[in-house]
Amino acid sequence: MADMKLVVVGAAGRMGQSLIQAIDEVPGAVLSGAVEHPASDKIGKDSGECAGLPANGIIIADDPLPVFAKADGVLDFTTPAATVEFAALAAQARIVHVIGTTGMTGSDDAKVDAAARHARIIQSGNYSMGVIVLGELVKQAARALKAADFDIEVLEMHHKHKVDAPSGTALLLGEAAADGRGIDLDENSVRVRDGQTGARPEGAIGFANLRGGSIVGEHSVLFAGEGETLELAHRATDRQIFSRGAVRAALWGHTRKPGRYSMLDVLGLKV
Questions:
Q1: Separation between Cα atoms, residue 117 and residue 37, nearest integer Å
Q2: Which of 97, 111, 158, 254 is catalytic?
């Protein structure tokens, strides 16, 4: 089978550069296009050189439509508004759309669902293999350790440039805990504590968000009981784990039918 032709959107950003590097590393994938917003000063530049690689001849463009038309898939870690537009274009081109964008709303998700009727969309709050396995462990622990006996807290820390909180990974882990408990996360999560908050509600899933320095990503889930605490944790030290996972997800999706998938599907963990 020929190499899968992949487009990176947001190609000049930190994650875009990492994705270009990952495509260069992972067998079976080849970079076929790179896109940036029209105001970027990287338009017209060689995408390989922008990513710290030798020149590859793939020039960063500002119009995704012709680039998508020649591709098999697109890797997208941009913004919610941009992702919704890219999902529609991926549906039009009937290609794979790997989404790592965080901070999306219910309205955004509905538009992505509509696009999945024609595109193969893989979406995850994290593309690290370790984090996805961690989520499954959190779900099992939450199912086994009852709310009356163990409180759940999700802690995360990222670099100072991250703009959304909780992180997509923290929400992924919170969803896993809620799923294990058979509850709705939105109705049972505590995002902010300040002042006289009162006692902790039984069954609540708390979130704590830390920002600083250049930390790639640290996540832990605490199950705090009377006299004992269980901690499940993951620490990322290399941003490339997310990029390589995204490329592998695209390769997995290449032969699938249109629809919406997650990393649980990619790893064969979905029940």
A1: 26
A2: 158
- Return the exposure string of 208-226: e unless at least 16 CB atoms fall within 10 Å of the residue's CB, then b: bbeeeeebbbbbbbbbbee
Element (H or E) spanning 216, and its range? none
Q: How far apart are CA 247 and CA 268, in angstroms?
A: 16
Q: Rounded distance, CA 152 to CA 202, Å?
A: 10
Question: How do residues 206-250 score in pLDDT, each as one tens digit?
Answer: 999 999 999 989 999 999 999 999 999 999 988 899 999 999 999
Q: Strand, coil or helix: what is 100?
A: coil
Known catalytic residue at 158: yes
Alpha carbon distance 51, 131 (integer Å): 26
Tell me the CA distances in angstroms from 96 to 14, 36, 104, 201, 214, one per residue in order. Answer: 22, 19, 19, 42, 31
Cα 218 to Cα 236: distance, rounded to the nearest angstrom: 6
Query: pLDDT (tens digit, 9 = 90+) per residue, 156-176?
Result: 999 998 888 899 899 999 999
Of 37, 118, 159, 162, which residue is the catalytic one?
162
pTM reported for the whole predicted model? 0.81
Is 162 known to be catalytic? yes
